[in-house]
Design goal:
Blueprint: H1 8-18, H2 27-42, H3 65-84, E1 90-94, E2 101-104, E3 109-112, E4 116-120, H4 127-146, E5 150-151, H5 152-157, H6 160-163, H7 166-180, E6 189-190, E7 196-199, E8 202-205, E9 208-211, E10 220-221, E11 229-233, E12 238-242, H8 245-253, H9 256-259, E13 262-266, H10 273-286, E14 290-293, H11 298-309, H12 318-321, E15 327-330, H13 335-338, E16 347-348, H14 351-361, H15 364-367, H16 370-382, E17 384-385, H17 398-410
Parallel strand pairs: 5-6, 12-13, 12-14, 14-15
Antiparallel strand pairs: 1-4, 2-3, 7-10, 7-13, 8-9, 8-11, 16-17
Helix pairs in contact: 3-4, 4-7, 11-14, 14-16
Length: 414
């Protein structure tokens, strides 16, 4: 039988997949990629040790299961000795409150100062949290001894009566990581998959070959066990880091990565640990520019800051999680007039938005970039914000056919 003729819609979709833009349209980002890869060969890595700051700040390391097991056992033996000596026991856990966080410009990320907070068992204000900490240590010991991984939800359901809320067991997980001195992933407790990747990247995941150009329009879920990813190969010129799933879907369906050779990643809002680890892995191995596409509002910028300098809650693990030098591609406050975003698509900032914007303006990672300061000042002056989806007012494919091509061709990022 002769093949069926495709209708106009199918032919248009097929044409979109085949379309290749002129290399000059991404010459600016290619030049930046070449410069980054050249610099990476000679660049000396800056660390807390090289800055003579190691003694003042907490540094956690990746640990194998047997080492985590030994560390937990050592903590328990120390507790036992203290109880037998009639001294009771208390955990000395580095405080993760905001006052104990510090931004190091040379590292371009947050770190945690070594200022422990004592959590005694024989104290009515801390007895419950001390009990939860002890229980989580016990559970972590079981998990690493068995060489298995569990989810944070699994951990919570082992003792619902004690934990009461998952937020409480989740928070103590970070405390335990700082107590042991290991990364959060070393505890073998992971979150459910959240982030997604699609585009010009191939890798092995626990031995299975993954080609992210052949993942349909949904993309490949970034696995909770990022350490299982090896043999990364890519012809991408850049990474397009997208705040929201809706924009990711548009980019994936239009096969944007075939027109502009790139890797597209989204954490679907506030990114989880795995998405941040994966982005950091790509940056370290490929040394290609990362362009950020986020809403033009304080919370979009706040989410981008989590990728860049780590969340304050996990600053102790920032060396593994923070990917500095992300370029702010859009949507920026100056874009609203430059691209003539309709007034009805602009939203008035709330009092909370303004408060968050003013707070961000004082952050070190913003202050070090004058262009970012100007953008935030404009946002606060106009009191206007806009979502990426505001671009759809010009057409559903305006993002992939006009906005991003112009931005990339002109090198319009800061």
């Amino acid at each position: 039988m002769p093949p069926k003729k495709r209708d106009a819609a199918s032919e248009a979709a097929a044409s979109k997949r085949r379309k290749v833009v002129d290399p000059s349209d991404f010459a600016v980002v290619r030049k930046e990629r070449i410069a980054m890869q050249k610099e990476a060969k000679t660049k000396t890595q800056v660390t807390l040790e090289s800055l003579n700051l190691a003694k003042e700040h907490l540094q956690v390391v990746e640990m194998p299961d047997d080492q985590v097991q030994r560390e937990v056992e050592a903590i328990v033996l120390e507790i036992g000795a203290s109880i037998l000596a009639g001294k009771g026991f208390a955990y000395a856990i580095p405080s993760r409150n905001e006052k104990n966080q510090k931004y190091i410009p040379e590292l371009d990320r947050m770190v945690l100062k070594l200022e422990p907070r004592h959590r005694p068992f024989a104290n009515s204000s801390s007895v419950r949290k001390t009990t939860i900490t002890t229980r989580v240590l016990e559970l972590i010991h079981q998990v690493v001894k068995k060489r298995i991984h569990i989810t944070k939800r699994d951990l919570f359901y082992t003792d619902v009566k004690l934990f009461k809320k998952q937020d409480e067991s989740d928070a103590v997980l970070d405390d335990v990581a700082t107590l042991i001195g290991c990364t959060r992933t070393s505890l073998n407790v992971v979150a459910s998959d959240k982030g997604v990747v699609i585009g010009q990247i191939k890798f092995l995941e626990d031995g299975d070959s993954i080609d992210c150009t052949k993942m349909g329009v949904g993309g490949k879920a970034i696995p909770s066990l990022v350490s299982k990813i090896t043999n990364i190969e890519s012809k991408a010129e850049f990474v397009l880091l997208v705040e929201k799933d809706a924009a990711f879907m548009r980019l994936a369906e239009d096969r944007f990565y075939n027109q502009y050779p790139c890797i597209i990643i989204t954490g679907k809002g506030q990114p989880d640990v795995s998405t941040r680890l994966f982005l950091k892995m790509i940056k370290d191995q490929l040394n290609i520019p990362i362009l950020g596409l986020f809403d033009s509002d304080p919370y979009g910028l706040k989410i981008m800051s989590v990728y860049m300098s780590s969340s304050k809650n996990m600053s102790y693990d920032s060396a593994a999680l923070a990917t500095s030098d992300i370029r702010w591609l859009g949507v920026r406050p100056t874009d609203l007039n430059r691209y003539k975003i309709p007034q009805q698509c602009r939203l008035e900032m709330t009092a909370q938005d303004i408060k968050e914007g003013e707070r961000l303006l004082k952050e070190d990672f913003v202050q070090k970039n004058p262009a970012w300061v100007k953008e935030l000042e404009l946002m606060l002056k106009t009191k206007e914000k806009a979502e990426i989806q505001a671009l759809s007012s010009f057409g559903f494919q305006y993002l992939t056919e006009d906005y991003l091509p112009k931005k990339i061709k002109n090198g319009d990022w800061i």
